[in-house]
Amino acid sequence: MKKYALNEITFMQFIFLIHGIQVGTGIMSLPKDLAEKSGTDGWMSLIIGWFINIIASYVMIQIFKRFPNDTLYDLLNRLFGKWLSLFISIPVTLYFICAVWLILIRAMLYIKAWFLPQTPDYIVVFLFTIPTFMLARNGLRIMGRYCELVFYLTAWMPFILLLVLGDSHWIHLLPLFKEGMMPVVKGLESTIYSIAGLEITMIVYPFLKNKQSAMLGIVIANSITILAYIYVTIICFAFFSPDEITGYNQPLLSLLKVIEFRFLERFDMIFLAIYLFIVSTSWIPYMFFAAFSVSQLMRKQDHTPYVAVLLVLIIAIVFVIHPSWNQADMWSKRVSIYNIGITFVLPLLLWVYIQFYVRVHKGELH
């Protein structure tokens, strides 16, 4: 009997789970970050980032095809034993916790800046934790259904940006490769952080019903994410001048301010309120993975108590330190480095270790 059969997810849920985690608050500031490092060639960094993600996902799939019923924690126990595996399991768990923390903090800062400037930050976070607990405690299948539902309900939102094309100047994008390839490569740092989320494959894989389609699902999920980022980035580059765009902290929200209807002036606030559902498909699954990871470390089957503990801890920390935008940006840079280690370095090292082990022992791992 499969260990995780009761929480199996479908192919579509797998796709939208990965895509939902990848699309968060980063899309608001990504055009500015890319413009600062790569100019208007920054959208090309997204294509290279997509290619790197596909290679990393291929390595992950090759690892877990050998052990289709193991999560990352099960595999580490198999390879290194109960105690030695903790040296890798603990940093991975801390990464998921940091990811939840960072996304919740940035979402809270957006809400305070645009909707509730007088509301204490810990109250806003507390309001976030109510639906988070209700969903995260119910397991991965519920996460997948929620991410799929939110995608269908918000699929219309990108088309709103087409309303500004009449005031856009496509000449801003030319010429291509203004300063060569190096600026495009520099933009990879912002790109890799913005499309983070691929690392959950190492946890989700055993939950997937049709594991033969895992690679296809990852390619589709990453492609949807990259197309969304390229779409938003190119429109922002075309609407704002190359020098002007770097003056906006959130170019996408500044762009939405221009859109008005006769019956609705502040459409940007409506858009952000709805977009909060999309951001929730990032922090809520990350909360599940954080609690699931803690339960694996504690050798417990039920992750629900750890969801509650982590949420209470987050509220308490916000109450004490009152995070700011500068702190959030500083944490983002650190977590992005952390993400590179978990997403790219760890799978590569595991793949090399498995290949070496099989050759030395002339047999398969059991």
What gyration radius follows from the Cα positions, in whole Å?
A: 21 Å
Low-pLDDT runs: none
> Mind describing the biggest β-sheet?
none
Number of helices: 15
What is the percentage of strand-forming residues? under 5%
CATH homology-level superfamily: Amino acid/polyamine transporter I
Morphology: globular
CATH class: Mainly Alpha
Domain count, please report it. 1
CATH topology heading? Amino acid/polyamine transporter I
> Which structural class fits the helix and strand makeup?
mainly alpha
**Could you tell me the mean pLDDT?**
86
Task: Give the helix proportion (percent range).
Answer: 55-70%
What CATH architecture label applies?
Up-down Bundle
Q: What is the end-to-end distance?
A: 17 Å
**Strand count:** 0
What is the H/E string?
A: HHHHHHHHHHHHHHH
Membrane topology: Multi-pass membrane protein
Family: Belongs to the amino acid-polyamine-organocation (APC) superfamily. Spore germination protein (SGP) (TC 2.A.3.9) family.
Pfam families: Spore_permease (PF03845)
Transmembrane segments: 12-30, 42-64, 84-110, 122-140, 149-171, 191-208, 215-240, 270-294, 306-325, 337-358
